[in-house]
C-alpha cells in the first residue's frame, strides 16, 4: 500500500476513533439506564402529593422554589428525571444559572409575561416572553434565567432529565474567582472590581429584586 493509501487508512481510523469517543462521552453524560422495572423498590410510592408543601422548598429573591429530590420522592431514583415548581413574584428573577447534568423543559402554568433566555457557546443571547401554556427549552449546561414581568405571580413547572441536575449560580461562581482572574475576564482594574465586590455581594444581589429595574406590565 502506498503512502497515500496508508494516509487514507489512518484518517479513517482517526475518524472512527473520534466518533467512538464522542459516543462514549454522550453515554457517560446522562444518567445510567435502570436495570429493573422500578429502581426505588416495589413498596416505594410512585405518586407525590403537594410539591409546594412537601417538596424541597426554598425562598429566593424571586419567589418560591419547590423541588423534588430522591430523598423526598424515592420513585425518581434511577429514572433520570426530576421536577421543579417555581412561583415568581412580580419583577422576581430566577437568577442566571446552569444545570451541568440536565436539559430543562419549562412550562408556564399561570401568569406572565415571563421573560426567559439562555446564552449559547458563541455568547449569543436567545430570549422570548412566555404566557400560560407556553414552553421553553434550556439546553444542558448553558446559562439561562427567568424574570416575571407580570403584575401578578407567575408559576412555571420544569422537568429536567437527571435525578440530580445540579445548579451552578453564575453570580456566586464569578464572585468565587480570584480578583486578578475576574478583573481580566471583565476587562476592568482590580481596584474597581474590589469596590464592586465590597458593595454588592452575591447574597445582596439575590435578595433585592428591585436592583433589576423591572417595571411590571399591566
UniProtKB/TrEMBL annotation:
Classification via InterPro entries: Cupin_1, Germin, Germin_Mn-BS, RmlC-like_jellyroll, RmlC_Cupin_sf
Signal sequence bounds: 1-29
Domain Cupin type-1: 49-194
Keyword Lyase: no
TM region positions: none
Coiled-coil annotated residue ranges, if any: none
Gene3D superfamilies: Jelly Rolls (2.60.120.10)
CDD domains: cupin_OxOx
Entry-linked SMART domains: Cupin_1
Keywords per UniProt: Apoplast, Manganese, Metal-binding, Secreted, Signal
SUPFAM superfamilies cross-referenced by the UniProt entry: RmlC-like cupins
Protein localization: Secreted, Extracellular space, Apoplast
The keyword Ion transport appears for this protein: no
Family: Belongs to the germin family.
The name this protein goes by in its record: Germin-like protein
Amino acid at each position: 500500500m502506498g503512502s497515500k493509501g496508508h494516509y487514507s487508512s489512518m484518517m479513517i481510523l482517526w475518524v472512527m476513533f473520534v466518533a467512538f469517543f464522542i459516543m462514549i462521552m454522550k453515554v457517560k453524560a446522562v444518567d445510567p439506564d435502570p436495570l429493573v422495572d422500578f429502581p426505588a423498590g416495589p413498596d416505594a410510592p410512585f405518586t407525590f402529593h403537594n410539591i409546594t408543601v412537601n417538596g424541597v422548598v426554598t425562598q429566593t429573591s424571586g419567589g418560591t422554589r419547590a423541588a423534588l429530590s430522591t430523598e423526598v420522592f424515592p420513585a425518581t431514583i434511577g429514572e433520570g428525571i426530576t421536577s421543579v415548581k417555581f412561583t415568581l413574584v412580580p419583577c422576581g428573577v430566577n437568577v442566571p444559572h446552569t444545570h451541568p447534568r440536565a436539559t430543562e423543559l419549562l412550562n408556564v402554568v399561570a401568569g406572565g409575561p415571563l421573560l426567559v433566555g439562555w446564552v449559547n457557546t458563541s455568547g449569543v443571547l436567545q430570549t422570548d416572553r412566555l404566557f400560560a401554556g407556553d414552553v421553553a427549552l434550556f439546553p444542558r449546561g448553558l446559562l439561562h434565567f427567568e424574570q416575571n414581568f407580570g403584575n401578578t405571580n407567575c408559576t412555571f413547572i420544569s422537568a429536567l432529565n437527571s435525578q440530580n441536575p445540579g445548579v451552578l449560580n453564575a453570580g456566586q461562581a464569578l464572585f468565587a474567582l480570584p480578583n486578578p482572574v475576574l478583573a481580566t475576564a471583565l476587562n476592568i482594574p482590580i481596584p474597581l472590581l474590589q469596590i464592586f465586590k465590597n458593595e454588592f455581594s452575591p447574597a445582596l444581589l439575590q435578595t433585592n429584586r428591585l436592583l433589576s429595574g423591572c417595571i411590571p406590565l399591566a
